[in-house]
Structures are given as C-alpha cells and as structure tokens.
C-alpha cells in the first residue's frame, strides 16, 4: 500500500483574545494527530472526535490504497498565538493532554483574573470623580462598547472597564507574575495529567519557535565595505526549541520553566502586561530551574556575554513579527523523510484584513491618534505575508523546474549510462562491491564528458559544501558571541586552498585527486541528492507507470529511505560528539583540524558501504523493469547533478518537495454558517479584547475554533488523496465531526446553555 506523510508547519498569528479561537483550532490539529498516531500504531479505535478522524484515515486506506500519517512537526507563533504554539508543541512531543490549556483559556483568561491586585480599585467608591468620565466612555454617545459589544454583554463589559479605569493609571493593569504563574500551572497540570504516546515517530525532529521583542535591544555587528564593521541595534529575539521526539511519552520538549518563559515573553502585550524579566520566572521556584544558564546562553548570548541579562525586558513578539513564517521555513532544513511527503504550511488568521476597495464609501481623513496607533501597532501586526508566501511559491516552482529538467535530461543520461556499461549491466547481480565500482566509473565519466562546464560545477559543489560546514561549525560554536559566518567560511576556504582545492578540476578533465578525497569525506549533500532523486522517480507524481505494482514501488521506496536515514543522521552537529563545540571554537585558528574532525566523525565512506548494502539487497529482489529504472538513476545521477546543481538555489534542503499553503479562518470554513468572522466570533468586539471580558464569549470562540478547525483539517486530509475525494463523502464526514464536537463540549460550555444545541441544530438542518 502506498504510504504518505501529511506534514504540517503551523503558524499562529497574534490576535489578543482571539487566541481562544486559535486554541480551538490547534486542539483539532492535536486531535487529528492523536487519531493518526493511534491508526498507525494499531491501537483500539479512539472515542469522540478522534474516532471520526480515525475512520477517515481508515477509509482513505481502504478506498484509495493510501496509508496516510499526519505529522504536525513545525509549530511557530507570535503573541497570544505563541502561547498556543508552545502548548501544542509540548503536547505533540510528550504525549500530554491539551485539556489544561483549555481550562486556562476558558476559566482564567478574564480581566478579573488577569488584573494585578495592585491595579484594582480599592473600593466601590474609589475615584468617584472618574464616574462621569467612565459613564461617558462606556455609555455616552458613540461609545466603543455600544458600537462594538453585543447588547447582552454590555453590562458585564462596562463593569469590568469601569474597574480598570478606576484602578491604577500609567502602569499595565494586568499582572505579569500572575500570568506567569497561570502558564506555569497549566504546564504542570499537563505534566501531572494523563500521558499517551508522542504524536510524531521516534527521532523525528519537532521545531517550535515563538517571536519576542527585546525592548532595550542589544548591539550586533554588521559587516560593510566601509567602515568594515558597524554596530546596529537588534530587537528581535526569537525563542526556538528543536528536539528529536522520544519513543516513549511523558518526556517534555523542554523544562517547563523554559516553556513558561517562552509563552509569557511572546504574549507580553504592550500596555496590558508589563515586560517580562528573567526574575519573574526565577520567582516560580526558590530552588531555581535546571538548565537556566544554558537556556539563557542559547536565546540571548550577547546579553549573557555582557552581563546584562538582569536588564532584559521582553515584550510582545508581534510588535515586530506577527506572522513568523520565516521561522517555519527555516525548520524545513535537515528534515528526514521516510516516505513520500505532502508538506503544508498552515496559518491561522481569525480576522483576515481586507482594506476598503476604491469603490467603497469615501473614507474619512486619518486622525492624529489613529495615525500614531496604526503606525505603531495595527499596521505592523496586520502586514500581509506576501513576501513569505512568494518565497514558498518560488521553492515550489524550483521543485517543479527540477522535475522538468530531469525529465528532459533522462534520454541523454540513460543513453550515456548504456554506452558506458553496456546493456548487460542490468543482468548482473548488483553487489555492494559492483555498485561501488560502477558508481566511481560513472562519476568520472560524467566529469570528463562535462568538459569546461565541470569547473563551474566543481566550484559550485565545493562552495556549497564549505557554506554548510561553516553553518554547522557556527551552530556548534560554544561562545556567546559566535564568529561571523563569512569569517568561518574564509578560514575553511584558506584551508582547502592550501590542500590544492583552489582548482578542484584536473587538467585532463574531471576532478583532481585532492578534490575526490575531499568530496568522499565531506560531500554529504551529494549523497542525499542522489537518493532523493531515486525516491522521486519511484513516486507516482514524477513517473506514473500503470504496469508497475504499487507494492513493488513501496518496497523500493522503503529501501531508499532507509539508506537516506543513514545520511540524515549525520547532518546535525549532535552527530559529531559532545566535544565538537570545543573543536569548533578553534575554527579560525585551525580550520583544518575542524575539517578533519568532521570527516573522522561522520565516516561518510563507511556510511556509503552501508547504504550500498541496503540498495544492493533491494535491487536483488526488484523486478527487472524497476531495477533498471533505479540503476539508471543511481548511476546516471552524476550527469544530472553536473547539469542541474549550478542552477538550483535550494539544493541543500533535504525535504525538497513543493510546499502548499493553507489558511484556517472563519472566512474559509462555511459548512455550518456563512458570514465568516462577523457571523461566528465574539472576541473581535472591543478591539479584539472582547473575549477577555466575558466567559460566554470565550466559550463561543473556542467552540467555533474547534468546529472550523475540524472542517479545515478534513479539507486538508481529503486533499492529499490522489484524484480527489468525493465532495458528498467529505460533507458527511464533516457532519459527523461537528456533532462529535458538540457532544464533547456539551457539559463544559455552560454560560449560554443554548449555544451547543443551537449549533447542533444548524448542523443537522444544513448537512442532514
């Protein structure tokens, strides 16, 4: 049976109280991932919503001969969306439950709970002279509450606004330490609650990144032509976590103090919460938190080096980066693939911004305060993600361009391989020794036939290797102020030039002996590209062959991915030993020692022997037509690489597939109710703070988040099916999952008893 992974890179926007809606969406991603994990583990069918997802995966396997696994393996977020990202990543990695976060949002995300005790009015008669102003702001003509808040909730909102206005002034009304304790308690409740299996395969990388803003900033060096170096102020401070998922549940992504720090820092909304200082997290535990110094050195190395950590003040991540697509895109690097991958970037946008069109009513002149507030907050937060999406689209176009180039080159390459080896090659038993000899012969032939073009190819190849080694060394460098990437690259280049690699081509054609030795020790990317090309030629998308049984293709793909895993395991600095950072620290003084250590510890030549053992065993059992295809690709790869490498920008990506982008928004999920955000969400009221003033609003938005998140998850899963999924079947599945969500939330959502029943009736009326 064909196997495929639906890999989700999730981007959670900031959205103030609409974070409650986003939590409902992320809960459905969590539920789908749990159902997928149970399906692939062969566990008993789960209950509730997960049963519907489980049944969908079973139906796809039975009706479409496709075994699909859903893997949310990259999670990024900003502001309150960052909180949801941190908790979701912890649940994916540890197998813990997200229910404590649901309780936190519904029960505690209220101004009455969040407000700092020192900011409350001292009594009901505090600041009596403010009451006329409070009345004017909350009930007077044209007041914001009457214009933006539903009638049934205005009294509650007015009371809470009155309390805030009559409290302290010129300081944030909400408690930073109180919010930190709420987050920490939710993480502790996850830790102490039920634990299942992790939701990603063992050793699969999980990336989490949230954005924060370093209010005071720090100086960073910037290299120019003149002057050579200048100091610039940098305020962005992303906090990232990467971990290989364990085989057993209950192991945290990171210490809960670190996760609390990340969640609190990214959501320090200016004016509402005070900036986060490190002392606030220190105060959670008198005994201190394990790994504190290592964590701080990793996320704020400059402050640690200069002894300024106690002065760090972190504010909301969405001030500078509200849609952290770049962090999610960076996570694509060094991701293994055990089978065919359908990569999706999914972003949650509760309120898609649509400016007025030229034909709309004539807008009023921009006022003084509107211009200031818009330039400082609104416009940066709503800045479109066009640049990020265009970058993803360019990557997808490049993947398609690679496919077209390979298809165009194939007749020429296969003729060259036939001429080099003769057709009797494919009748021989492909032992590891023969594969090694054939491979070396094909590489030399391709280099010689390339003529003068080989020299540009060799320089591109060598330059790419040194760039990746420089990045590897810099990432492993233990110093708080890491050396400049260009300086590391220059040192490595000097070392290779001294060993005769300034001209990697031999005078008579092909590669020089020095270059061949260097490539055998260091050209990891070449090995990965070669096996990736074979895997692509074994996919139906690249090469449909109705006469080739899917079972034969799947066995061949499994062998290729097992061989790829050997090389993927050698990409990270973690594979180079615990003492490699100490070696990396000397790269500027002794770059040759660093290169030698990498070659010795990666052992790529031994890895080649293992990979060719796997490949030869697989070739032995393949039908002749499939064996011919694999051998022609394996031995023809040097020809393809010479022609394509200088033209491709992203060849370092190991997960090199077209990337599709999907949005989750009320505007995109209309199976139950049309009208989008305005017709479904209540947290948009009072400038997106509405849900912080009313539990009824939070319950409404959380429920709609689940419903609309489930609808879009069904859309995503169904879109992976070759040839499409029957639209009526898809609607039937949505109906089942909507009703299952209503059943799960019946007893939890009590502020408006008719809410769940009303939606249940809507579902039945519209979907049967």
From TrEMBL:
The record's annotation in Pfam families points to: DUF3376 (PF11856), Patatin (PF01734)
| Annotated motif GXSXG, positions | 77-81
Is Lipid metabolism among the key words of this record?
yes
Keywords, sorted A to Z: Hydrolase, Lipid degradation, Lipid metabolism
Gene Ontology terms, MF aspect: hydrolase activity
- Family annotation (SUPFAM superfamilies): FabD/lysophospholipase-like
Gene Ontology biological-process entries: lipid catabolic process
Gene3D superfamilies in UniProt: Cytosolic phospholipase A2 catalytic domain
Q: Does the keyword DNA-binding apply?
A: no
Report the active site residues.
Answer: 79, 316
Positions of the PNPLA domain: 10-329
Give the protein name, as stated in the record: Patatin-like protein
Taxonomy of origin reads: Bacteria, Pseudomonadati, Pseudomonadota, Alphaproteobacteria, Sphingomonadales
């Amino acid at each position: 049976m064909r196997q495929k992974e639906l890999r989700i890179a999730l981007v959670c926007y900031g959205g103030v109280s609409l974070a409650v809606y986003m939590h409902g969406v992320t809960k459905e991603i969590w539920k789908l991932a749990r159902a997928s994990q149970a399906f692939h583990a062969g566990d008993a069918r789960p209950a509730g919503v997960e049963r519907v997802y489980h049944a969908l995966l079973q139906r796809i396997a039975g009706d479409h001969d496709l075994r699909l696994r859903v893997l949310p393996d990259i999670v990024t977020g900003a502001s309150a969306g960052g909180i949801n990202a941190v908790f979701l990543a912890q649940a994916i990695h540890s197998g813990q439950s997200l229910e404590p976060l649901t309780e936190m949002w519904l029960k505690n995300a209220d101004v009455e709970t969040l407000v700092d005790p020192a900011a409350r009015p001292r009594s009901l008669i505090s600041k009596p002279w403010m009451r006329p102003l409070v009345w004017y702001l909350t009930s007077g003509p044209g007041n914001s509450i009457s214009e933006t808040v539903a009638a049934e909730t205005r009294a509650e909102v007015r009371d809470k606004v009155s309390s805030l206005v009559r409290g302290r002034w010129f300081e944030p009304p909400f408690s930073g330490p109180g919010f930190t304790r709420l987050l920490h308690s939710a993480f502790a409740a996850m830790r102490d609650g039920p634990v299942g299996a992790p939701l990603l395969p063992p050793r699969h990388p999980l990336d989490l990144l949230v954005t924060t803003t370093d209010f005071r900033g720090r100086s960073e060096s910037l290299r120019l032509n003149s002057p050579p170096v200048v100091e610039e102020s940098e305020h962005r401070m992303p906090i990232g976590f990467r971990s290989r998922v364990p085989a057993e549940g209950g192991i945290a992504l990171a210490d809960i103090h670190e996760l609390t720090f990340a969640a609190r820092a990214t959501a320090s909304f200016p004016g509402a919460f005070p900036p986060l200082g490190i002392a606030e997290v220190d105060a959670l535990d008198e005994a201190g938190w394990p790994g504190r110094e290592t964590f701080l050195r990793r996320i704020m190395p400059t402050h640690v080096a200069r002894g300024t950590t106690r002065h760090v003040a972190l504010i909301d991540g969405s001030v500078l980066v509200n849609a952290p697509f770049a962090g999610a895109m960076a996570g694509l690097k060094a991701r293994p693939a055990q089978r065919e991958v359908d990569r999706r970037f999914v972003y949650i946008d509760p309120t898609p911004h649509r400016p007025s069109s030229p034909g709309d009513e004539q807008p009023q002149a921009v006022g003084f305060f509107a211009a200031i507030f818009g330039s400082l907050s609104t416009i940066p937060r709503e800045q479109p993600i066009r640049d990020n999406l265009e970058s993803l689209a360019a990557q997808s176009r490049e993947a398609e361009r690679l496919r077209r180039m390979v298809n165009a080159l194939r007749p020429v390459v296969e003729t060259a391989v036939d001429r080099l080896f003769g057709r009797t090659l494919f009748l021989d038993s492909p032992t590891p020794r023969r594969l090694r000899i054939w491979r070396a012969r094909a590489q030399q032939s391709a280099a010689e036939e390339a003529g003068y073009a080989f020299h540009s190819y060799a320089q591109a190849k060598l330059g790419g290797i040194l760039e990746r080694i420089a990045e590897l060394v810099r990432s492993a460098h233990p110093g708080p102020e890491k050396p400049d990437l260009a300086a590391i690259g220059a040192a490595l280049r000097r070392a290779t030039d001294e060993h005769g690699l300034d001209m990697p081509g031999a005078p008579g054609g092909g590669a020089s002996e020095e270059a061949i030795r260097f490539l055998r020790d260091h050209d990891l990317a070449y090995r990965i590209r070669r096996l990736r090309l074979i895997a692509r030629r074994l996919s139906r998308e690249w090469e449909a062959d109705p006469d080739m049984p899917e079972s034969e293709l799947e066995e061949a793909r499994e062998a290729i991915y097992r061989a790829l895993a050997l090389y993927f395991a050698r990409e990270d600095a973690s594979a180079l030993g615990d003492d490699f950072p100490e070696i990396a620290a000397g790269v500027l003084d002794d770059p040759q020692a660093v290169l030698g250590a990498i070659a010795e510890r990666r052992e790529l030549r031994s890895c080649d022997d293992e990979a060719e053992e796997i490949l030869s065993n697989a070739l032995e059992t393949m039908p002749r037509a499939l064996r011919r295809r694999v051998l022609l690709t394996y031995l023809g790869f040097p020809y393809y690489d010479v022609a394509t490498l200088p033209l491709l920008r992203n060849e370092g990506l190991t997960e090199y597939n077209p990337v599709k982008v999907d949005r989750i928004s009320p505007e995109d999920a209309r199976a139950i109710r049309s009208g989008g955000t305005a017709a479904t969400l209540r947290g948009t009221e009072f400038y997106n703070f509405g849900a912080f003033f009313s539990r009824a609003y939070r319950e409404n938005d959380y429920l709609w988040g689940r419903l609309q998140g489930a609808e879009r998850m069904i859309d995503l899963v169904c879109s992976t099916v070759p040839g499409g999924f029957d639209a009526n079947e898809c609607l039937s599945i949505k109906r089942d999952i909507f009703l299952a969500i209503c059943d799960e939330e019946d007893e939890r959502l009590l502020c408006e008893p008719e809410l769940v029943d009303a939606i249940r009736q809507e579902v039945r009326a519209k979907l049967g």
